[in-house]
Amino acid sequence: MAEARGEPPEPIANGAQENPEADATTTQGAQPNEEKQDEEMEPLKLLCGVCETETPKYKCPRCYLPYCSVACNKVHREVHAGEPVTAPPPPKPAPTPEAADDSAMRGRKFRHPWQTLQHSEELQWLFRKYPRLPSQLLEIHAATQPPPVQKPKIPASLLKDLPPQDLSNGWDKDKGIERGKEALRKARKADGEDGEALREYSELVLHFMEEARERKGP
């Protein structure tokens, strides 16, 4: 009996007994720090340098400030209104005939704003964003074309002595342009992605027209 009373208590095995309340408090206290670290690691979103709300799509050709729309571009252009036009670089040595021909081909290819738009990365980006945009543009273009010619129902043998018939159905170039404009207006007012795609495309066209006017100068 004396030996039983004199036995020392069994030692705790290397932290076998733990404080569950302390562990829970430690775990809960670590969660806000982890969430804070995740928030700090989120990448910053690039915004328009004018309105500071929308994602930019273009850059100013002078100072490379990103902006999102033609409206913001007009506001930003006032910043450069009083600045002198940069002097052109000094002339380069005359290129070889082969290089001159190649340069002339590139100049003709990108001289017109519509040709610049056709080969622009911005337009390709719109086509990727709105896969239906190319077919929408083809539909608008089709509205500018003359209607199919209807063959006369009268046999050709009986038409010899008759005056030539007008097979244009009242179509001319001006009417084709008006029909194309009307088709574009309807497409821009459409709901959903179809309307949004045409509105962004129209905005991109205006952007390239503005750039062409700036390059041309007064």
Automatic annotation (TrEMBL):
Residues 1-42, 83-107, 144-196 are annotated as: Disordered. Residues 171-196 have a biased composition (Basic and acidic residues). Residues 48-81 form the HIT-type domain. It comes from the Eukaryota. InterPro entries: BCD1, Znf_C2H2_type, Znf_HIT. The keyword Zinc applies. The keyword Zinc-finger applies. One of its GO terms (cellular component) is nucleus. Keywords: Metal-binding, Zinc, Zinc-finger. Pfam families: zf-HIT. One of its GO terms (biological process) is snoRNA localization. This is HIT finger domain protein.
